[in-house]
């Protein structure tokens, strides 16, 4: 299938922590106090033979595992310091490996043998045919071996991720760089912990039969902590998400799926995968921050944005966002029991904001860090409480915007910049004491069940409510911009409403329950635009009710979508605004 290249494309998590942010927030937002250098500054240091957290930056990220396992000379001679946690991990592996289906065995095998970058491209969903065509990406791993075979097909090593000279060559080069770059510190992580793979520890953990005959024979040195497959999958997955953030959460879900496949195969413990996620995320931030990589990542982003178009007939394995959210969130911690303080404030790793800079091009670096801070997972889970904060990042939730407003939050979006700067949706349930100020010509949609208290002010552009409580519990002021709502049912303003001169309020009306409820007083001026949907039935009724009354009046009312043969006007009646409807040539409106 050929695709036409466009000139350009316009572009509450389950475990969210810190919903009542204290004064500690400010000091943790920017850079945690570290015993040693930040990972983004030290990741490429020579660490061969250095196995301690003090000398190896990758070991330092996942060093909490030393609290559960004391390494010995090999995998059998170590000491179990927390048998309860290690046994819980094995119990999960027994469950996953005994419940998997033949289809899952086959798909997990392909994730094992194919290049990481190729396995991840299903995250493109409807954009996948376009990406394949533009990049020339392919795989030779298309057939299953015999179960228990002693030798497995080799991975393709030349141009596995496509043609660097193709129209998406910049994307190919970026992905290949992420896949092929070796880090000295990573080569020794498994040696530092010397923790055996799960099928070595329990006879009830069933190894995937397609790889069972090809595992290492030296069982005493077959170490699993941490998972290299998971690390590379998150690293490259975040690379794809960077170049094409329209599918940010889908790529994250696919990366987590590949990590989980390591559990289901019996190849890795759950904590192996958690550690791999942490190191992979840290490496992505380190690579994206490196000045020498700036041009490569920019070129990859621009190529993807200018070339990729969706195929409406292409399948999308990640079309169910709430399912993706649930799976991704569970795999952050695997629902391990907490073992430490669950009230520690979130910290945001140095340089982590780069991971979302194409997802939120209209936010400042410190604003993105606040997004990361307000969407992180709770403290106390095994391995996750590293001092930099890599283990507690929830990038899926962060890709849905703020989890809380800590203070006045000014968001400036400009339509002329295109993409997410022209229109974006925040899907988290936003809490906090702070407020939201919307500026610029772009459109921001709030889709969460929000409870932030500081109020909402629209100065320019559009702020649209897609949930009944999208504007939180504070006062709503429309001071020159456009307030829009597209809620199916009542829309609540849980304080006062003021629509000033030169402002616009857009109200979409469909079913009989569509009404704006204002808990305080409504002061109205400016323009009211009413959009009647196809479900609207011609009948007069109240469309806005202010508990403490209405002052003023709209200077202009525009009604769109009236059926042929009907007229309508807006009238104030008591504490409400009514849409009065009548048939053409009918003197008395239908009450």
From TrEMBL:
Record's signal peptide: 1-22
InterPro entries: Autotrns_rpt (IPR013425), PAP2/HPO (IPR000326), PAP2/HPO_sf (IPR036938), Pectin_lyase_fold/virulence (IPR011050)
Pfam families per the UniProt record, alphabetical: PAP2 (PF01569), PATR (PF12951)
Domain Phosphatidic acid phosphatase type 2/haloperoxidase: 172-288
UniProtKB keywords: Signal
Domain of life: Bacteria
This protein's record includes keyword Signal: yes
Coiled coil: none
Methyltransferase keyword on record: no
PANTHER family membership: AT30094P (PTHR14969:SF13), SPHINGOSINE-1-PHOSPHATE PHOSPHOHYDROLASE (PTHR14969)
NCBIfam families: autotrns_rpt (TIGR02601)
The name this protein goes by in its record: Autotransporter-associated beta strand repeat-containing protein
Organism, scientific name: Schwartzia succinivorans DSM 10502
Lineage: Bacteria, Bacillati, Bacillota, Negativicutes, Selenomonadales
